[in-house]
Amino acid sequence: MAEIVIKNLRKDFGDFTAVQSSSFTIADGEFFMLLGPSGCGKTTTLRMIAGLELPTSGEIYIDGEEVGQKPASQRDIAFVFQMFALYPHMNVRRNITYPLVSQGMPRAQIKDKLAEVARILGIENILDRPVGGLSGGDRQRVALGRAIVRDPKAFMMDEPLGALDAEFRERMAEELRALHDRMGATTVYVTHDQLEAMQMGDKIVVMNHGVVEQFGTPQEIYDKPATMFVADFIGSPPMNFLRFDGTVTEGASKVALNGAEIAVPVQHEAAAGKLVLGVRPEHVILSDAAGLRGEVLAAEYLGTTQIVTIETAHGEVKARTGAAQAVRPGETVGLDLMPRTLTVFDDQTGRALRSDLNAEVLGHG
Amino acid sequence: MAEVILRDVTKIFGHTVGVDGIDLDVPDGAFVVLLGPTGAGKTTTLRLIAGLERPDRGEIMIGGRPVVGETPAQRDVAMVFQQYSLYPHMTVRENLAFPLKSPILKTPADEVERKVNAVAEVLRIPHKLDNKATQLSGGEMQRVSIGRALVRDPAIYLMDEPLSSLDAKLRADLRVELKRIQSDLGATLLYVTHDQIEAMTMATHVGVLDEGRLVQFGSPREIYENPVSEYVATRLGLPRINLVPAGLFGGAPAGAARIGLRPEHIVMNGEGGKAGTVIRVEHLGDQTRVHVEVEGQVLTTLADAHSTLGHGDSVHVTPRDALFFDAAGNRVH
Questions:
Q1: Is the distance from CB of A246 to CB of A275 less than 8 angstroms?
Q2: What pLDDT score does A83 carry?
Q3: Which one, of B121, B120, B119, B163, lies nearest residue B142 by Cα?
Q4: Minimum distance, in Å, between the CA of residue A238 and any CA atom of chain B
Q5: pLDDT tier at A262, thresholds 50, 70, 90
């Protein structure tokens, strides 16, 4: 299997820059997510790694070899698309073995390979069925089988679950991840679904407008977002932004919102003007004693937890609390924000200010 | 507003029973959500109440009046569909006013203006009133189509997955907004969806449908905490309820075939319990899902967001608040 290194990768389509200057490393055996809204450049990045697009500039290393300008056929990568394209006139067996037959592999070896793949995917009992009558899940398994059977260095997957309904998608996501755990193959996976990325990925790259916004583990990206875009894109509901005019001095451990002092992680850089205090919904605690106050607009029951929407002087805030806590629309509540979890952003640039919380993740750039 | 009552309502399409003997009470001022997968009979039920389908059997009463013989217009219901259908050549104001200008209603002009303004205020689109419908975003268009139902003051609002064509963020906003509008107006609302989050967060009552039958009706909390069957238990809750053989932890009542455990009802490393092995940990930010194998069964449970558990770790798991189901999937305890 393979390590994939991306260096200063750029792709222009005429005047339009799809990918600006991406750099990241995909470790051998990693399940790696390219995440972002449509048009962010994630699919273009994937297609460049696979060799379906050639980069305008920059380098792509697969297992130490620079392959940026090589065609797809010389990269030994398997691609799984959103719409699984199977040969409709062939049965499951022939669909899976087709790549091997066309490579001219000896028949006995093909037979062994097929048996192994069918066992991994749990599709031994449908090998002789035509693909036409298969369920969505089985079709997806066959498409995966055709990718796996070649023993490629890495798998590229472009929203492979995008066309499935919600319930089935969750099952397939679990199955795909379990399959990856068994095979340990480097996998690059494109999605716009943040939950899918958090659930399945070892590492995530968050992209927006062709730029890598952040690169890290799911928990790092969730807890220590580098930008307001990441903070807003990850999480459901997303991070709350309390906008305020103020100053942050180096070494400060408090910010003042309309007089209410709020403790924050020790800040490593100074800023002034339009600032934003970011807090995740589960880090907002309703407390009568808190200085920051607001009026409850709504409470949404979710089983074990509820989402409480509160109107404050700094905008709407959503809090995730236990479902047992009684909250009535119209009442005034205090909001305690858990100090160690807070991020201060510069509203102009959208960038997180470095602090004790995130300095290690954001580095010194 | 008015209450709606269904008694033994049945609708057959050829050889398929679309709706099978449904009894349903939608109280005045309630927000009732019908929940079920595709083909459960949700939309058919809505269309029967609206008068777009005729029942083969049973009675439908709106505000105490039997309506089966009435046309949709006579029933005084307002319906909102999944696909917003606005008049593209009209402004938002003209779109909102259109239902009031129907010859049946004969609303005076000043009354039309007052209502349109009031609804625009409720929907937070007063600054868009003079825009063409085509100049709106998807969320604004859906708000206008909901607004077109709101201007009418009907006996009941019927909504068929009105949010499902919107993106996740907008859906979350409109969920809160729709709930607020309904409770501000004291409106009676019957809402169809297959999205459990919508059902849980907006409903005063949830009706769970399975193959044309209403299998449970109650508050979201009742349905979540006290489901009558495995089917109902799996409709609500994310991650899904764990269903494993009843004997796994011992102490199962007579007749129980499976035990249903919500992820939050599996306690890790408490007192006693069964030994298990962590097979996978998913860090989702606000919560961590832990998949634990116990005697060949995989259970999904939740841990603290910063749990240090990892693949291969040994844990002890103890169930609490277990639900038991018989071989047919019905609740036995």
A1: yes
A2: 65
A3: B163
A4: 9
A5: very high
Alpha-carbon span B312 to B314, nearest angstrom: 6
Q: Which among B141, B147, B65 has a CA at the least distance from the CA of B100?
A: B147
Which amino acid, B75?
Answer: R
Contact B22, B215 (CB under 8 A): no
Which amino acid is residue B308, in one-letter code? T
DSSP letters spanning B208-229: EEETTEEEEEE-HHHHHHS-SB
- What ipTM was predicted for this assembly? 0.73
Exposure string of B151-173, with b = 16+ CB inside 10 Å and e = fewer, is bbebbbbbbbbbbeebeeebbbb
Structure tokens at A299: 């409470």
Strands (E) across chain A are located at 4-13, 16-26, 31-35, 57-62, 65-66, 77-80, 154-158, 186-191, 203-208, 211-216, 240-248, 254-257, 260-263, 271-279, 284-286, 292-301, 305-312, 315-322, 332-337, 343-346
Rounded Cα–Cα distance for residues A183 and A188 (Å): 14
Q: Chain B contact for A177, CB < 8 A?
A: yes
- CB B284 to CB A280 under 8 A? no
Residue A176 has pLDDT above 90, yes or no: no
Say if residues B175 and B193 touch (Cβ distance below 8 Å). no
Q: ∠ at Cα B286 (B285, B291), nearest 5°?
A: 75
Cβ count near B328 (within 10 Å): 9
Distance (Å, rounded) from C-alpha A26 to C-alpha A6? 8
When mean pLDDT is compared over A298-302, B163-167, B226-230, the highest value belongs to B226-230
The amino acid at A280 = R
**Chain B residues lying within 8 Å of A303, measured CB to CB:** 200, 224, 236-238, 262
Nearest to A298 among B37, B180, B221 (CB): B180
On chain A, the residues whose CB falls within 8 A of the CB of B37 are 167
The count of CB pairs under 8 A between chains A and B is: 71
For residue A83 the two structure tokens come to 């719409």
Count of positions (residues) in chain A: 365
- In angstroms, the CA A212 to CA A227 distance is 11
**How far apart, in whole angstroms, are the C-alpha atoms of residue A344 and residue A190?**
30
Q: What is the pTM of this model?
A: 0.81
Contact A2, A62 (CB under 8 A): yes
**Distance from the first to the final alpha carbon of chain B:** 39
Output the six-digit token pair for B136.
Answer: 């709106």
Q: What are A354's two structure tokens?
A: 């470095």
> Nearest Cα to A175, choosing from A156, A163, A160, A190?
A160
Q: Is A179 on the interface with B (CB under 8 A)?
A: no
